[in-house]
Amino acid sequence: MKIKGRTKAGTTILAVRVPVKLKNRLEGLARSTASSRSRLAAEALESYVDEQESQLARIDRGIRDADAGRVVPHEEVKRYLQSWGRKRKLPLPVCK
Known about the structure:
By secondary structure, this protein is mainly alpha-helical.
């Protein structure tokens, strides 16, 4: 929301091109929830960025673990997964 040429404290304006259908859906959601398009879009962007940052951090952690040799051999994981649904499920394999 602009106030005398400035945005609310701690916010900024971001222009984004979206398909018309998405804009219409956002407008409908805003009406249904008595919220603004801007607020809904900001919440959606924050959720997306949080998820992407978290995923990249997990990937980085996994790469560091693999580089350090903290892995479970593929064949052990395969045998474990193949034991699912059988009378005798194998114990969860552990990192070497």
